[in-house]
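Narrative summary of target 7.
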Amino acid sequence: MSLEDYERHFDSLNSDLGSGSVVSERSASGTFSGEEEKLHYIPIRILGKGAFGEATLYRRTEDNSLVVWKEVELNSLSEKTRRDVMNEISILSMLEHNNIIAYFNHFMDKNTLLIEMEYCNGGNLNDKIIQQRGKLFSEEIVIWYLYQIASAVAYIHKAGVIHRDIKTLNIFLTKTNLMKLGDYGLAKKLDSEFSMAETCVGTPYYMSPELCQGSKYNFKSDIWAMGCVLFEVLTLRKTFDATNPLNLCVKIVQGNWTMDVDTDIYASGLIKLVYECLNQDPAKRPTADEILDQPFISCCRRELEERVVMLNSAMKKSKLSTVSETPVAVVTTRSREVYYWGGGKFTPQKLDSFKAGSSAQHVCAGENHFAVVSVEKELYTWANVQGGAKMVGQLGHGDQASYRQPKRVEKLQGKAIRQVACGADFTACLTDEDQLYMFGSDYYGCIGVEGKMGMEILEPVLLEFFEERHVRQVSCGDNHVVVLTQSGGIYSWGCGEYGT
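Modeled conformation, tokenized:
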């Protein structure tokens, strides 16, 4: 897209703001014409608050996908801030890349602007670093993260966009470790790679020396921020730290980072790249494309590219097709309720556990245990037994306790579960990566590990047999399992009594 195209696109978005043509059901006076396309959404939960407003998770009923609405109250914004908000929409709507948060739509509800964007269910990179609790990432993970970040930055730079706020909080992840660069409120379109910006923006921890000194800057300021992010991934510490902004700027300009990267853990080429990104002279910093050409990335780049495509295809929601009239977002309050019975309970019992972010999308029952996959693709299990009978691992919590209330299977944290199936006393679950996990009784060989792990498997185990045979669907009988693979193959195991 040329600079002229971009400016025309920006003007069209600004005209949308003035028209107020899109309303939601929250506006009592809202009316729908027969030609308007209605898109129905159910609110799930508030994800957080940003510089311009709240971010809320919604489920779109048409395709059951989860999306984020960034809600911006326009009345309270200055003219400059309004321009920043519209700038984010302009930037997002012209970018389409597997490692960038996708823009789907925007709506108006009276004086509230709603920006519909892609949802990442794994938090952000800052969360991921904190969750390490001081345990360093493996070099393989670091390269995987670096490749995805550099791919996103290379793409936006080719589009003439400088992000200006790259930081761990703005790098989002899915449960499968797919990364998405987001938050373009401060992004700026430059007409060439030699253009220089002057506004001092960004987050202090990731500001380049030229920003701290009030000098002109360009795309290489993003590379500095990338260096800070990579340093943080390698050390689990901020690159520069101080008690106040002035001291922080002094340390940045002096290149006085908090610590050195551990040379016993990481390869010299990776460490050298970090310090090249943190070079005080912008001209000596590599471009994002040059980062992708580093030997430790280029040697496995095709494999990394294929992995990104595969993970993205499992959760990608297509951009909305163009319609003759602006689509209308209809917010509904329809909810999914979970009921269960049996084990002495002769009437359905409603479970209040499944609401908001834990709302159910798939349920299954075994002989005396239950399993639910939530809309955020997390697995919950519980039991309904008499006299406190012990489980045999079919709940997947690592013990034999008979939990009476739904409990999330923590051992599957970081895995996006799309389907669950229950046998009499075992459980199978399938991830977005087409991986199959099993747990529970292996008395009849249902776990599929050839009895090598004992009679009771208390925690989920990955079936290595299917690592190269991607699973499309799994189904369980009382004592047997059947799997359909993506290639159309059918596999079964367990007890063959009665010809099953």
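The first helix runs from residue 3 to 19.
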